[in-house]
Specification:
The chain is α+β, with helices and mostly antiparallel strands. The protein is built from 10 helices and 11 strands. Helix 1 links the parallel strand 3 (38-44) and strand 4 (75-82). The longest helix has 20 residues, at 186-205. The structure holds adenosine-5'-diphosphate and the ligand N[C@@H](CCOP(=O)(O)O)C(=O)O. Residues 56-138 form the GHMP kinase N-terminal domain.
């Protein structure tokens, strides 16, 4: 049996719609083994939206690898141990896709290179901003081209923390993409290019004072925040308590605030504020570090199946 550990991810990071994302230290574990025949899928905790048949996202990702390399297991057992909350903008689907591809490649003899796995994952997800950090870790700048992903991985220092606000309601990425406008104004494109470029420079040079300005966005947040009650309240309280920027995580509904050395005071202030605020939903709060490793083998046990 092969166990793979794959991180959550937060995409966009303010201005970098579909091209910037970071892996976070919150994980799913995918256990896979070849069996005599059939497909057995188990999951804990279980969730009705996790398919137990060929529609399961991890299985679908594994199948793209088997089709690519022309090797198929006789049967397959998949066990999912999920820590990443579903449909909250923390890359649960990208974790399934990148983790499934990584596990299938190991099971089928490691024929695909890292670059090939990154490309397959981004193609399946439709954008490379979650799948690439889920695969290789770090904070990634990535563009999906015809046959490859062009990307740069930045190893995030432990000093930078990601304060994550997770509400008790879901928002599917598909829905949150469909409500975006087909066209945007030239000035809004210019606004985002400037901020995304500034973000890339500021984060990689440690100029965190620039991050509140560099994480402003006009491409997706103005539209999506209407679907997230109290979005502005949470962003504003984070900035008041000294966050270096606060924005929607992926397509939402989770919100991320960037915090550096003073994260313990920040955490205390936020917890007190959340306990005393009138909010439409319940919001979970946790402080995470970036994961700089991506999908990794957790354990390998030899299987009794003989070919
Ligand atoms: N652990 C899992 N196992 C199987 N499918 C999953 C798992 N986690 C997420 N998914 C699938 O991904 C969907 C959520 O994807 P998406 O809407 O993109 O949200 P997210 O922001 O969490 O990636 C779920 O409805 C489910 O179909
Ligand atoms: N760039 C995508 C990112 C979606 O991330 P997810 O974690 O919500 O799946 C978008 O903004 O649609």
């Amino acid at each position: 049996m092969i166990s793979v550990k794959v991180p959550a991810s937060s995409a966009n990071l303010g201005a970098g719609f579909d091209c910037m994302g970071v892996a976070l230290k919150l994980y799913n574990i995918i256990e896979v083994e070849e069996i005599e025949k059939g497909l057995i899928i188990t999951s804990s905790p279980d969730d009705p939206s996790i398919a137990k048949d060929e529609n399961n996202l991890v299985f679908k990702a594994m199948k793209t690898v088997f089709d690519e390399v022309g090797w198929y297991p006789r049967g397959l057992r998949i066990n999912l141990i999920n820590e990443i909350p579903l449909t909250r903008g923390l890359g649960s689907s990208a974790a399934c896709i990148s983790g499934g591809i990584y596990a299938a490649n190991l099971l089928s003899g490691g024929k695909l290179s890292e670059e090939e796995m990154i490309y397959l994952a981004a193609k399946m997800e439709g954008h490379p901003d979650n799948s690439t950090p889920a695969m290789i870790g770090g904070l990634v700048f990535a563009v999906l081209e015809d046959k490859k992903v062009n990307y740069i991985k930045f190893v995030v220092p432990a000093r930078l923390k990601f304060a994550v606000f997770i509400p008790d309601f879901q928002l599917s990425t598909e829905y949150a993409r469909n409500i975006l406008p087909k066209y945007i104004e030239f000035k809004d494109a210019v606004f985002n290019i400037g901020r995304a470029t500034l973000f890339a420079s500021a984060i990689t040079t440690g100029n965190y004072e620039l991050l509140p300005a560099a994480t402003q966005d006009r491409l997706h947040q103005p539209y999506r925040k209407k679907l997230i009650p109290d979005f502005d309240k949470i962003v504003n309280l984070s900035l008041e308590f000294g966050a270096k920027g606060a924005f929607l995580s992926g397509a939402g509904p989770s919100i991320i605030a960037l915090v550096d050395e003073n994260y313990e005071i920040f955490e205390q202030n936020v917890k007190n504020a959340l306990a005393n605020m009138e909010l439409a939903a319940n919001w979970d709060f946790m402080i995470l570090e970036a994961d700089n490793s991506g999908a990794t083998v957790f354990s390998v046990q030899s299987t009794s199946l003989k070919r």
